[in-house]
Request: fold
Amino acid sequence: MKLKTSIMSIALLALLASCAKEKEKKMTQSEINAKVDSIVGTRIDELNRQAMEDLDRRKSIEVKAKTDSIVEAYTKAQAGEVKTDTTVPPPPAREK
Reply:
């Protein structure tokens, strides 16, 4: 029984010691700026790398679709199927 109580006491003390709040070191403005610059620099490099990969992957897909659309519109215009009047009507007058 004493052994069990001793073990429980030691476990409780260890738990309390680990939960004790440590004093946080106050950081100066220059230390904060250095830490922020380090974190942001690393993250920006990663985001730029990811963006370039996405661009390379999507470029061929999107350019092909746009090119096909332009060629189709040009072909229809040459065949006379599309009205080529590009004038835009004025917006309706505002009532007061």
Remarks:
- The helical segments are 2-19, 29-79.
- The first helix runs from residue 2 to 19.
- The mean pLDDT is 83.
- Residues 29-80 form one domain.
